[in-house]
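Listing S7. Sequence submitted for prediction.
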Amino acid sequence: MKQTLNEQIALTKFHSLREFRERLQDGKLMMKAQIELLFLRDTFKFECYVKKYQLDQEVERRLIQSGRKDLFCIYFKYRRCTRSTESLLIHYPKALSIYAKYHALGESVQMAMVKQKKMATTLQYIKRRELCGKALLFFREHAEKKLVVIYDDIWMTYGK
């Protein structure tokens, strides 16, 4: 995008959706302008942007830390998080639950999730996705029996 940072921030905050959409043809926003999208009350510009471009990794982190379910639903519908940001999701069960609706976590992130033994986090994930083979083996050996029974009820009884 050919604009300065201040012009991009002004575009994000004050210009119409139509003008915002037209100017996106020039390229991605700088990171600080992307961050401004997270603080808008109106989510239309955010959705317009993420349909076209992936957020920068730091902006993804801030999105997850923001706790805004409305933005999670929009972003995860169109984009996967980077691997390093996926590892942050296991510390935010609400964000993880929405992410799991659209995408499976990578094997290393699933392993980290089951190793941390936080029942709420793992439960949010397994309600929507099966664990990969390696994570499932570890989970069966080390998780609370109650959680393993819930997993089996979801994935073994009802199937996929």
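Caption to Listing S7: primary sequence and predicted structure tokens for the chain studied. The chain has a mean pLDDT of 93. The two ends are 44 Å apart (CA to CA).
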